[in-house]
């Protein structure tokens, strides 16, 4: 058993689950250092994958830099990413090494999210992405989720199924009629749906209706859902549109009518590169009603789909609990105590409830250390964690 309530190491020492995660990562680190050059190791240590903390949807893992789809609603260009695609500058094994030394990542528990700043199956990134997804799962067992607008052909589906048989795939579709305006260089949304139907026979596949474009997505929702029914797709994930000043300019140039609808729903105008979410509660409610009519399972966040796909359970945020209720386990106080002792932090009280963990420390420690404890335990236990220092 790789991960359970305890792990037995050399010399007969038995570790609790949480410390076991740390020791397992350490073995991965050592094994990769044996095969990597010192130059790659040093580059990996400086790479953001080695120190970024996971987002609520998981650890965003970059297979490339930039995107050539030129979607007018995309935020990555405001972040400085180019409109062309380049492979990520670390080799696959170097990227896995960077993840293995990231203090916040927990093997088997931290969700892996591919496709946040590039198209993972673009012709430039495709082979690299497939190999990276395979290696990350092989070494660290991070539950895989991929966001894509690509055509999921047989090679991609076969490779993903072999890398992580419970992989969660999100295929973005925001519009059919306005696709050429909103996503000028992306593949046809109808083709995306057709191939998503093929993928759904082998993997947990959802249509990613994000961002919801007011006046567009809501008016086309029946058309989209009829196609999903035709190709036997059972899941959707929905998400809001966030706009910056530049995105508003591009929307206005692409379609004044869409721009006006978005502007009407903005709580305030964004400043510079600031991203502001539009008001869309009424549209989400409409989509939810339609989803029930079409007997579709609706997820309100990407991570919900990943948790479901991997038959896991999560109670880390107010949207929870999510996933398999049968896997809801109350944290063990002894495991938490062992973890705190392992990292040389003294505690006065650990309070464990079904919904949260509260820790009171004996000493005053740095904010960074508190952040580490909260984030690592949150990932390990999939529950809310609060730490109070003196």
Could you name the key traits of this structure?
2 domains; GMP Synthetase, Chain A, domain 3; 3-stranded mixed β-sheet; alpha/beta; 390 residues; globular; disordered N terminus
What does this structure look like?
The protein is of the alpha/beta class and 390 residues long. The chain is globular and about 60 Å long. Helix 4 (126-140) links the parallel strand 6 and strand 7. The chain has helices spanning 17-33, 38-46, 92-100, 126-140, 154-163, 179-182, 189-199, 217-230, 245-254, 256-264, 281-293, 302-309, 333-342, 367-381; strands at residues 6-8, 14-16, 59-61, 64-65, 86-87, 112-114, 144-148, 168-172, 204-209, 235-238, 242-243, 276-277, 297-299, 313-314, 322-323, 347-352, 356-361, 384-388. It starts with 5 loop residues before the first strand and ends with a strand. The model is unreliable at 1-12 (pLDDT under 50). The chain contains 14 helices and 18 strands. Helix 1 (17-33) runs antiparallel to helix 3 (92-100). Helices cover 39% and strands 16% of the residues.
Secondary structure: helix percent: 25-40%
Q: Supply the helix-strand structural class.
A: alpha/beta
Low-confidence stretches: 1-12
> Total helix count?
14
What is the CATH architecture term of the largest domain?
Answer: Alpha-Beta Horseshoe
The largest sheet is: 7 strands, parallel
Number of strands: 18
Class of the largest domain, according to the CATH hierarchy? Alpha Beta
Strand order of the largest sheet: 3-6-7-8-9-10-13
**What's the CATH topology name of the largest domain?**
pyruvate-formate lyase- activating enzyme
Give the averaged pLDDT, no decimals: 94
- The separation of the N and C termini measures 39 Å
For the record, the count of structural domains works out to 2
Strand content bin? 15-25%
């Amino acid at each position: 058993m790789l991960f359970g309530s305890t792990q037995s190491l050399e010399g007969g020492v038995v570790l609790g689950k949480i410390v076991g995660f740390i020791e397992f990562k350490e073995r991965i680190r050592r094994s990769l250092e044996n095969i990597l050059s010192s130059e790659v190791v040093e580059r990996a240590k400086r790479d953001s994958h080695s120190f970024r903390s996971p987002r609520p949807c998981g650890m965003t893992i970059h297979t490339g830099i930039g995107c050539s789809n030129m979607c007018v609603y995309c935020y990555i260009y405001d972040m400085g990413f180019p409109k062309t695609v380049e492979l990520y500058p670390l080799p696959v094994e170097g990227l896995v090494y960077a993840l293995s030394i990231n203090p916040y990542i927990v093997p088997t528990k931290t969700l892996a999210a591919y496709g946040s700043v590039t198209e993972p199956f673009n012709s430039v990134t495709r082979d690299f992405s497939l190999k990276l997804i395979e290696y990350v799962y092989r070494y660290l067992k991070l539950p895989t989720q991929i966001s894509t607008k690509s055509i999921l052909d047989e090679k991609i589906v076969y490779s993903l199924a072999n890398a992580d048989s419970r992989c969660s795939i999100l295929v973005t579709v925001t519009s059919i009629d306005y696709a050429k305006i909103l996503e000028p260089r992306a593949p046809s949304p109808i083709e995306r749906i057709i191939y998503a139907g093929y993928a759904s026979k082998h993997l947990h596949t959802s249509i990613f209706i994000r961002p919801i474009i007011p006046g567009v997505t809501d008016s086309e929702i029946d058309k989209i859902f009829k196609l999903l029914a035709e190709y036997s797709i059972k899941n959707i994930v929905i998400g809001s549109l966030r706009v910056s000043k530049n995105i508003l300019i591009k929307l206005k140039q692409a379609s004044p009518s869409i721009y006006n609808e978005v502007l009407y729903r903005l709580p305030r105008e964004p400043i510079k590169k600031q991203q502001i979410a539009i008001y869309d509660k009424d549209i989400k409610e409409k989509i939810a009603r339609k989803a029930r009519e079409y007997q579709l399972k609706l997820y309100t966040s990407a991570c919900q789909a990943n948790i479901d796909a991997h038959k896991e359970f999560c109670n880390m945020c107010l949207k929870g609990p999510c996933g398999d209720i049968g896997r809801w386990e109350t944290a063990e106080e002894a495991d938490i105590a062992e973890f705190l002792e392992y990292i040389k932090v003294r505690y006065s009280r650990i309070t464990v409830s079904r919904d949260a963990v509260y820790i009171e420390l004996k000493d005053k420690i740095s904010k960074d250390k508190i952040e580490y404890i909260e984030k690592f335990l949150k990932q390990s236990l999939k529950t809310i964690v609060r730490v109070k220092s003196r």
